[in-house]
Write a structure and sequence with these properties.
single chain, alpha+beta, Dihydrodipicolinate Reductase, domain 2, 2 domains, five-stranded mixed beta sheet, four-stranded mixed beta sheet, 8 helices, binds iron/sulfur cluster, iron
């Protein structure tokens, strides 16, 4: 079948959504297996075993790995020389509608005032499209698909710390958010922490760190990398465990910190949770419509 560029873009995004909701990325699977091996709470271990079986079953059946297929978010990075820039927004909406029927995805897009569900995961500012920069040298379009579960989104939060308190505020904010969240974000979670910048930038950094960064990667700033390890130890020491079942090895799989320079008078600390169903897919579309999908 010969598809024109726009049709190929729709197909690429539907395929990316399918890959994201059916297959868990390998770094997340490995981290869940490690948590299972290291967890001493029998109740948490039983939940981790059920999660791992569920992941296997989803792959075998080609079915979504969680009934909540999330709020669909696209991070778009433009290649300046990509020939289909004018189609991008309409492609993302059309692909979301198509994927909702074909995969299927649960319709999760609701009017905030009336509670009415659009039925196809679209609506005002839905799907969420985040324009994530331009690569002047590139002729390709890069889209990261993130179907993010409602449970993890529900407990994501923002603190405005006292600037003079510094690093102590970060530890306090993360622990407070994790304690308040409890089992709601379906632990083990990946916790993104966005520090500094403005309130909106801090949350943007936190959400990207929670959803896109691979588990096992180290932050290039050694101070931040050490902070991440310390925060992960502190979070797991809280003993919430997988699905709130207790245990010291499965409250979180990773803590990812990102930061930006801030105004001297402000100290935003954003905490974004990602649940164990940490779904994502990286789509790259070439000018001829051919594409690759990675996780
Ligand atoms: S928070 Fe994640 S694992 Fe829990 S129900 Fe929602 S999508 Fe599924």
């Amino acid at each position: 079948m010969n598809l024109n560029l726009r049709e190929s873009m729709v197909k690429a995004v539907v395929d990316g959504l399918r890959k994201a909701v059916v297959y868990l990325p390998i770094d997340v699977k490995n981290a869940l297996k490690k948590a299972y091996e290291e967890e001493s709470s029998l109740a948490a271990k039983a939940h981790l075993e059920a999660i791992l079986k569920n992941v296997e079953l989803a792959e075998r059946l080609g079915a979504p790995l969680c009934q909540d297929t999330g709020i669909i978010t696209f991070y778009v990075r433009l290649g300046a020389r990509f020939p289909g820039i004018q189609y991008i927004e309409s492609v993302l909406v059309e692909a979301t509608r198509k994927a909702t029927v074909e995969i299927p995805l649960r319709p999760n897009s609701v009017d905030p005032f009336t509670g009415l569900n659009s039925g196809d995961n679209t609506g005002r500012f839905a799907p969420v499209i985040i324009w994530d920069g331009v690569n002047l040298e590139s002729d390709s379009l890069e889209i990261v698909v993130v179907p993010k579960g409602g449970g993890s989104e529900y407990v994501s939060t923002l603190y405005m710390a006292v600037p003079s308190k510094g690093i102590e505020s970060i530890e306090e904010a993360v622990l407070d958010a994790v304690i308040k969240a409890g089992a709601m974000p379906c632990p083990p979670t990946i916790i993104g922490v966005g520090i500094g910048g403005t309130v909106d930038l801090a949350m943007h950094l936190a959400k990207k760190a929670a959803t896109i960064r691979k588990i096992g990667s180290r932050h290039p700033n050694p101070f931040v990398a050490e902070l991440e390890e310390k925060l992960l130890r502190m979070v797991n020491d809280l003993g919430i465990g997988a699905m709130g079942m207790g245990g010291k090895a499965s409250t979180a799989l990773a803590v990812h910190v990102e930061y930006a320079y801030r105004h001297p008078a402000t100290y935003p600390i954003a905490i974004a949770f990602q649940c164990w169903a940490a779904r994502r897919a990286f789509i790259t579309i070439k000018p001829d419509g051919s594409y690759t999908i990675e996780q």
